[in-house]
Structure to design on (325 residues):
């Protein structure tokens, strides 16, 4: 596993595909791990080192904020973004309090690459 | 009708303005997704029965339409709906994933793509409302539903005369000639709470 491993967690397959397409287009060397919920994300990253994670907020089971705190416990240096259509100030504040980046949906190349490389 | 749910002119104005702002955010999000200008109608707010709401939302009761439905909760609660004609749904998906994802997946991804669009539009509007009212609203996961408007609103015989608040705004992608509309439905206990939130909002505006 390379150090450039990006975890993409979203219950929407279309959203995962859009994010993956943007990442693949920018750098084919980056390994993308997709998961449709928090449990799957934790299970798929047991044996790997995640450097960047892009997480949806509203998903079945644990939400993106809970998942972010679990991932940070496992990968303290990981750069984590909360990618969500829920653009309420309180959600931004919760993301900020966790030390993760708030990325508003809709998904655009500028927003995704700006987060990864910014 | 219960006097406690009647709106004063200022309350009505405030709700329309907040809906305007919310839908402006939603339209900006949609415009970013489709690279096209999104035209918005003037919001409408009505207190009517569920059956009347169904008639307002679609004048052809037997016509099957597509809806993305999201229940929301908080100081007030209700249903948020993005509705459009069945024949428009694949066109919307085509516009959204054009040049981004393989075209042979369009039918397979239809429900997923529309739920994501619905989630982005409805969440943008609800988030704006929550931000302006300085309150928190949480939403369930979006649902993809097709059927007549009565089926989508899940109106049964005992509920059809129940009074609700209907907030509706239409939007159009002019180049693609695609019309859709967003509706929010609140029942009587929720309307009373919503009015309190609006009064609190208006209270902060007073000198």
């Amino acid at each position: 596993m390379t150090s450039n491993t990006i975890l993409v967690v979203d219950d929407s397959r279309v959203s995962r595909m859009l994010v993956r397409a943007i990442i693949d287009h920018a750098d084919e060397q980056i390994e993308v791990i997709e998961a449709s919920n928090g449990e799957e994300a934790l299970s798929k990253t047991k044996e790997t080192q995640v450097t960047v994670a892009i997480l949806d907020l509203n998903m079945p089971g644990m939400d993106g904020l809970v998942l972010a705190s679990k991932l940070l416990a496992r990968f303290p240096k990981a750069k984590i973004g909360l990618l969500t259509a829920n653009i309420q100030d309180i959600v931004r504040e919760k993301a900020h309090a966790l030390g993760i980046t708030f990325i508003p949906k809709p998904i655009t190349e500028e927003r995704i690459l700006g987060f990864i490389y910014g | 009708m219960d006097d406690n749910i009647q709106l004063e002119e200022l309350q009505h104005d405030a709700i329309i303005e907040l809906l305007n702002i919310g839908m402006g955010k939603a339209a900006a999000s949609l415009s970013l997704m489709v690279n096209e200008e999104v035209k918005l109608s003037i919001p409408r707010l009505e207190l009517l029965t569920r059956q009347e709401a169904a008639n307002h939302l679609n004048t052809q009761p037997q016509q099957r339409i597509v809806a993305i439905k999201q229940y929301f909760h908080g100081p007030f609660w209700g249903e948020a709906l993005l509705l459009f004609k069945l024949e428009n749904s694949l066109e919307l998906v085509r516009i959204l994933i054009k040049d981004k994802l393989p075209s042979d997946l369009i039918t397979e991804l239809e429900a997923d793509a529309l739920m994501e669009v619905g989630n982005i539009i409805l969440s943008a509007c609800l988030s704006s409302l929550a931000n302006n009212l300085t309150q928190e609203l949480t939403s369930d996961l979006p649902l993809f539903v097709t059927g007549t408007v009565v089926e989508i609103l899940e109106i049964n015989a005992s509920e059809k005369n129940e009074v609700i608040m209907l907030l509706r705004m239409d939007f159009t992608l002019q180049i693609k000639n695609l019309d859709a509309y967003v509706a929010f439905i609140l029942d009587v206990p929720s309307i009373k709470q919503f009015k309190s939130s609006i009064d609190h909002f208006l209270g902060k505006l007073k000198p």
About this structure: The CA atoms of residues 90 and 110 of chain B lie 7 Å apart. The two ends of chain B are 33 Å apart (CA to CA).
